[in-house]
Write a structure and sequence with these properties.
The chain is an alpha/beta fold. 41% of the residues lie in helices and 17% in strands. Helix 11 links the parallel strand 7 and strand 8.
């Protein structure tokens, strides 16, 4: 069966545009009435807002739902320097300011989860609910870091169909699919002039020394006060289920759930289950 980003969005009242986040031209996809509570969706390293194309419809019923291209990613401005978690958090808060959101629920996958957690730690008044979806930031696994660097660098420096596809397929539990529409979308992103240099800046967190000074441990996770869902998967290529459990154990009152037969993008691979679990948590206690 052919899978298409457009068919995922067909019939969804959606807006694509750019906003000025403290001087950073930031691309977004948005769905849902603007008077609803804000939900901000943050993708992973080397990614872009299309990571959430299958989730906008369901979440727009309840939230003003924003999926952005992170700083240095997608079609958002590239600052031209190695990026660390503080840079991403500053940009994320600037996005909330730009859309007039004093508070928001933030859900992040991989790098996005790392950013979301750090934002909740340092700026607790800005975060209503927090979802850490196969989140990074808790460990430095040399093999995983090497794999991310190798696949991402190859795809950005020589953006052929095969190299970009290899990067996408690595994320997924089901290796039998070609993910053609996602590959085509990412190929367009990676073929932008200067993108290889931008990728080197976004891969700074895969450098062991830089990564260590950005890692989150028990002291940091223990300061999270927002209700938190830690969502992991059976086939995550970056860390096994035990690491997800360990993260949840460090966050006061955190919920922990595992999705089977999914890799690093459960929101895409098993959208109905993800949307159900995600919304059950985000709406818990809502009026």
């Amino acid at each position: 069966m052919h899978e298409s980003i457009w068919t995922d969005l067909q019939g969804v009242p959606i807006e694509q545009g750019y906003l000025d986040a403290a001087g950073v031209r930031t691309r977004y996809l948005r769905a849902g009435d603007r008077d609803k509570p804000v939900l901000l969706l943050l993708h992973g390293t080397g990614g872009h807002a299309e990571a959430y194309v299958r989730n906008l419809r369901a979440h727009a019923v309840h939230f003003s739902t924003w999926a952005i291209d992170l700083l240095g990613h997608g079609y958002t401005d590239k600052p031209g320097r190695p990026l660390e978690i503080a840079d991403y958090v500053e940009h994320t808060l600037a996005v909330l300011d730009a859309i007039g959101a004093e508070r928001a629920s933030i859900s992040g996958e991989s790098l996005g989860g790392w950013i979301a957690a750090r934002a909740a730690i340092d700026h607790p008044r800005r975060v209503d609910r927090l979802v850490l979806n196969t989140a990074g930031g808790s460990q430095a696994d040399p093999e995983v870091m090497r794999r991310i660097r190798t696949l991402s660098t190859a795809a950005a420096e020589d953006p052929t169909w095969e190299k970009v596809q290899a990067r996408i397929v690595w994320l997924m539990a089901d290796k039998t699919k070609g993910y053609d529409d996602l590959v085509a979308s990412r190929l367009q992103v990676y073929r932008q002039p200067g993108f290889a240099a931008a990728m080197r800046d976004t891969l700074a967190l895969q450098d062991p020394q830089i990564r260590v000074r950005n890692l989150l441990g028990p002291e940091e996770y223990g300061r999270i006060v927002a209700p938190t869902l830690v969502l992991w998967t059976s086939d995550d290529p970056t860390a096994d289920v035990s690491e997800g459990k360990r993260i949840a154990s460090m966050i006061p009152g955190a919920r922990f759930v595992v999705m089977d037969n999914c890799g690093h993008w459960p929101q895409y691979e098993d959208t109905p289950t993800f949307n159900r679990l995600h919304l059950d948590f985000l709406l818990d206690g809502a009026a």
